[in-house]
């Protein structure tokens, strides 16, 4: 017969595991976690590159040092995770043009101010006119980024963080500091430790049969009485409740089908959320040829194509002697690079680096290109709510449909896009399901008491 559990959790990333932990700690022992890939962690993932661990997904604990304490920072501190402070503020003074000259600080500061002013004006326009298009048309044309340096700064402001443009809850609540995780055990060590608190493990391995890896959920059939879950390998599971933690990119794809179909308000909300693709490309060299020392960790390449190998970081602070550079691409550039061979990408990156540092620099000996967009269990790096979205969109994305509960970073109203967003969303959803189970219990009891 089909196995039945009280709560079945789809996805073993930070949100799914956080939800499971809440349930387990509150006496819900018959859980089942189905994970599509062959590991836990989801978008928190390390990989060996050269002699060190690099983070293909989440790399920073963002929001530290403020009035409230970031829960992920607390867990990391307790475990003694090795981190280093990232100071981006100098990046704007390390902007290279295509001939390898660094822009004088006066020009950099002016371009920076212009980009911030234009972004603020545009945001104000969006709020007033309720339309991105109108706001773009209304923004003072002289402020529109046009030159390579303006385009580079515009890219940094919009595709990374807009803290200077609008308040971001993460920095307002938890503080403005960001720490890069630089630990051989990886950011994912946090999740193994979290899993260990409620799943059976031995010698660092999870051996609990309530966690099943390589189980791709393809169908959810739901009714007033429960949910039937079907996986790609033909298994069927029954559950009283389902918690679905798949990313917004997966929800927008056709990986999981629902019977009956999701209601209109739900599918419309899912479509309204933009997905962000964010790609960190790692390059290893035989030796260093870039400047190190204070204020040099981050540098910018100004090219006439917006977002073309713009944002660079050296890993000497994180891993001295590793001789690794990281360049970050987003959205269309990410998708372009994902679809070409790594050799082509390496060639492109070398042209850019030779522009900045001269023809005599050595070729990279190794390259690592994560492919979050083409991963059918991700289809994005994180959610990005449009500037004019109201809370209704996120509330609808989060709202349960019958016995199916939705969780994940994209359901976090204040912290979407972050690890702590996923963690807090998971806790929230775990509690919401717990409340339903308690209600059910009370109803059953009343039923039994009736004569
Ligand atoms: P996920 O981690 O995606 O977990 C969902 C799980 O569901 C996955 O394991 C997936 O395999 C599984 N799944 C999907 N479909 C199915 C299915 N059909 N059946 C079964 N299982 C399924 N955050 C920060 O705080 N700081 C950063 O510096 C940062 N940088 C980032 C950089 C990159 C490149 C990326 C990709 C993300 C970054 N983030 C960062 C965001 C952060 O990683 C995420 O917000 C967080 O990890 C999401 O957790 P989650 O549980 O919501 O989703």
Draw up the topology in text.
Layout: E1 4-10, H1 14-25, E2 31-34, E3 46-49, E4 52-55, E5 60-64, H2 71-79, E6 83-86, E7 95-96, H3 105-129, H4 132-138, H5 148-159, H6 169-174, E8 177-181, H7 189-196, E9 201-202, E10 205-206, E11 211-212, E12 217-222, E13 227-231, E14 236-244, H8 248-252, E15 257-259, H9 264-272, E16 274-276, E17 278-284, E18 298-301, E19 311-314, E20 324-330, H10 331-338, H11 342-357, E21 366-368, E22 382-384, H12 391-398, E23 404-406, H13 419-449
Parallel strand pairs: 1-2, 1-14, 2-11, 7-18, 12-15, 14-23
Antiparallel strand pairs: 3-4, 5-8, 6-8, 9-10, 12-13, 13-14, 16-22, 17-20, 17-21, 18-19, 19-20
The chain binds flavin-adenine dinucleotide.
Shape: globular
Q: Kindly name the structural category.
A: alpha/beta
Spans where pLDDT lies below 50 across 5 or more residues: none
Strand content: 15-25%
Count of alpha and pi helical runs? 13
Sheet with the most strands?
A: 8 strands, mixed
Q: Report the end-to-end length measured between terminal Cα atoms.
A: 33 Å
Helical fraction equals 25-40%
From the alpha carbons, calculate the radius of gyration and give it in angstroms. 23 Å
The hetero molecules present are: flavin-adenine dinucleotide
- Mean pLDDT over all positions: 93
Question: How many E-type strands?
Answer: 23
């Amino acid at each position: 017969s089909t196995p039945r559990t009280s709560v079945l959790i789809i996805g073993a990333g930070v949100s799914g595991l956080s939800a499971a932990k809440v349930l387990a700690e509150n006496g819900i022992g018959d859980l089942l976690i189905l994970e599509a890939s062959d590991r836990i962690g989801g978008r928190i993932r390390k990989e060996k590159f050269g002699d060190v661990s690099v983070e293909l997904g989440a790399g920073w604990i963002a929001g530290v040092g403020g009035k409230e304490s970031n829960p992920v920072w607390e867990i990391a501190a307790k475990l003694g995770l090795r981190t280093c402070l990232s100071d981006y503020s100098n990046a704007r003074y390390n902007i290279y043009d295509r001939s390898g000259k660094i822009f004088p600080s006066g020009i950099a500061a002016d371009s920076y101010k212009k980009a911030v002013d234009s972004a603020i004006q545009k945001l104000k326009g969006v709020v007033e006119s309720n339309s991105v298009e109108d706001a773009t048309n209304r923004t003072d044309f002289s402020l529109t980024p046009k030159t390579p340096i303006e385009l580079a700064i515009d890219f940094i402001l919009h595709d990374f963080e807009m803290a200077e443009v609008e308040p971001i809850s993460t920095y307002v609540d938890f503080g403005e500091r960001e720490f890069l995780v630089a630990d051989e055990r990886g950011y994912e060590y946090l999740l193994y430790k979290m899993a260990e608190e409620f799943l059976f493990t031995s010698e660092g391995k999870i051996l609990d049969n309530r966690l099943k890896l390589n189980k791709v959920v393809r169908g959810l059939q739901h009714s007033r009485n429960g949910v039937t879950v079907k996986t790609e390998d033909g298994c069927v599971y029954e559950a009283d409740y389902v918690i679905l933690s798949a990313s917004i990119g997966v929800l927008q794809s056709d990986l999981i089908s629902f019977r009956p179909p999701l209601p209109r308000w739900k599918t419309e909300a899912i479509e309204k959320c933009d997905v962000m693709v964010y790609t960190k490309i790692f390059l290893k060299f035989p030796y260093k040829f870039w400047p190190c020392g204070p204020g040099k960790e981050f540098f910018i390449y100004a090219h006439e194509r917006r977002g073309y190998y713009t944002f660079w970081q050296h890993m000497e602070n994180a891993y001295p002697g590793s001789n690794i550079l990281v360049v970050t691409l987003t959205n269309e550039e990410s998708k372009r690079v994902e679809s070409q061979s790594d050799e082509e990408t390496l060639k492109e990156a070398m042209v850019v680096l030779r522009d900045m540092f001269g023809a005599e620099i050595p070729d990279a000996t190794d390259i690592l290109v994560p492919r979050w967009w083409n991963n059918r269990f991700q289809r994005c790096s994180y959610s990005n709510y449009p500037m004019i979205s109201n809370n209704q969109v996120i509330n609808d994305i989060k709202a349960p449909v019958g016995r199916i509960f939705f969780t994940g970073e994209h359901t976090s109203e204040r912290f979407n896009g972050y690890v702590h967003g996923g963690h807090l969303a998971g806790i929230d959803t775990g509690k919401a399901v717990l409340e339903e189970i308690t209600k059910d219990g009370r109803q059953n009891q009343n039923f039994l008491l009736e004569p």
